[in-house]
Design goal:
With 192 residues, this protein is mostly helical. Helices cover 66% and strands 0% of the residues. Helix 5 crosses helix 8. The protein starts with a helix and ends with a helix.
């Protein structure tokens, strides 16, 4: 839960409260501690709405409660600090739209970005395990790493990778379908 949602929650909190990186990190950790120590998961009923909406509502309530109480423990104040991520703690810095975005937009944009990133890692790993590295390499060269801001043609890729043009087309089609399947599985199983 923390791994999947820390960046969206962090971005949401940072946008709502406009606190320092340290304070936002503390509040993010406190929120996850709060939901993991309580009956948060048991209160969600999938038939009543998406998990993301439930999480955002819970986060808003938590932030309002924290603001009212003003009793949040400060960094290192008797609570074990568990790192939520080893990456960028400021997802909003990658997007110039952060300042004009609502907390919900930041949360959703970060969630989508993380979902696609995790799905691409799963896709690459599964294709490598199946010995289909060339398929991912084709997809990467065409979709993820276009040269000079433009996608190469199928013909250019076939020459570069030493495969037929029809293989380029087929690989792209199959990898796109597989990525879509991975994303749908992730969302459908509640891992998102």
């Amino acid at each position: 839960l923390c791994t999947l949602y820390w960046r969206p929650v962090y971005g949401f909190i940072r946008r709502v409260w406009r606190r320092s990186v340290e304070d936002t990190s503390d509040l993010t950790q406190d929120f996850f501690r709060h939901i993991l120590e309580g009956d948060f998961i048991d209160r969600h009923h999938p038939d009543k709405g998406r998990f993301r909406l439930f999480l955002k509502g819970t986060l808003r309530n938590y932030l309002a409660q924290d603001h009212r109480d003003g009793a949040r423990l400060k960094r290192g104040g008797g609570v074990e600090i568990v790192p939520l991520a080893d990456g960028d703690l400021q997802p909003e810095t990658r997007s110039g739209k952060w300042e004009s975005s609502t907390p919900e937009e930041i949360f959703d944009r970060q969630w989508r970005s993380d979902l696609v990133s995790r799905s691409l890692v799963r896709l690459k790993d599964s294709l490598e395990k199946e010995g289909k590295e060339i398929q991912f390499k084709t997809f990467h060269a065409y979709e993820l790493a276009p040269r000079e801001g433009k996608q190469p043609t199928y013909g250019e890729l076939s020459k570069e990778l030493g495969i037929e043009t029809t293989q380029v087309r087929n690989y792209l089609h199959s990898v796109r379908a597989r990525l879509q399947q991975i994303i749908l599985e992730t969302v459908g199983t509640g891992q998102s």
